[in-house]
Amino acid sequence: MFPLSDFPSLAGIHYLNTAAESIPPTCVNEAVAEYMTHKGLGMRGREFHFPRVEACREITAKHLGLSTEEVSFCSCSSEAYNLLASALQLKSSDEVIVTDLDFPAGATPWLTAAEKPVTKLWKHRGGALRLDDLAPLLNERTALVQVSLVSFYNGHRIVFAPLRDLVRRLAPNAVLSVDVTQALGRVVLDCQDADVIISSTHKWTLGIHGGGIVGVPKKGAERLTTKAGGWYHITNAFDPDRFETARIKTGAASFSVGMPSFAALYALNASLRYLDQFGVPAIVAHADPLIAKLHGGLRELGIQTLAPEQSANPSGIVAFTHANTQAIHDALLAQNIHVMHQVVRIRLAVHGYNSAEDIDAVLATLRKL
What we know:
The protein has about 375 residues and is α/β, with parallel strands linked by helices.
């Protein structure tokens, strides 16, 4: 799929750990080098920096299915969620729903708030989140429903439209927030009408650390305007009344509170344009059959995955547990197969630079064990 000449560091290895860290293509290295060249110009470099941010906003909006005015950037997804908390200003009478398949960045801001809302846990069953378990948790006091489109933990992918419809019907006052960190650049997004879309930049997008993506559709801009201090998101940052009041830009723009992370946005601009050359549907068409092959091979070995196979709605992640995960990880690494190993969990991730040979190598090693 992706020409391996664009990924020289993949020579001689089978890399199946994109869900943790992606391998950037050479054009990203070149973009970061270009940033350093522009940075070396001192103040004159800003003549290049800010146009790159706008170019990045344009291609990011295309991938999210939003307009450029609905997209902004911060330093990481954790910052985005803390800024979202500042916008919502939740009270102890409010209710928040998070899932036990979510990443901590989206789940913990509500647990650490000065005035903690009631936090309810939508628990998975058999590795999948089921709407009949969510429905009893929803009511008119629900202020936020936070989900990940694809779970970092086991790769379960939410079917978004029925979730959206259920939340809108049973919790009409709720903000629906979706983390697409494990989806953006790998699956075709279908969550454009969520109230907030958040992502990091160093995984399936093929970018680097230091960036966070925030999408806020215009219809919710007023409600989802942060209350954070800063300057870049303030319309009167240098006006005479700047020490008397702070006029904050609405919606997505309010999440960019300080100087942009230029290096990360140079990289993201290059990586998303790289992905755009192929198109996410083509990436899906290449990588999803490899996911199915991996599921099938694990079944033959009697290994049960942490999430059921979703043939009609797959993600890029397959995970399983085993009593001897350390031995499995060591054996895979000895064959130059790179996967995520954490406690008793093995997680494999398949992207556009992976091939059937990578899957065969994993399964062959597991068979020997």
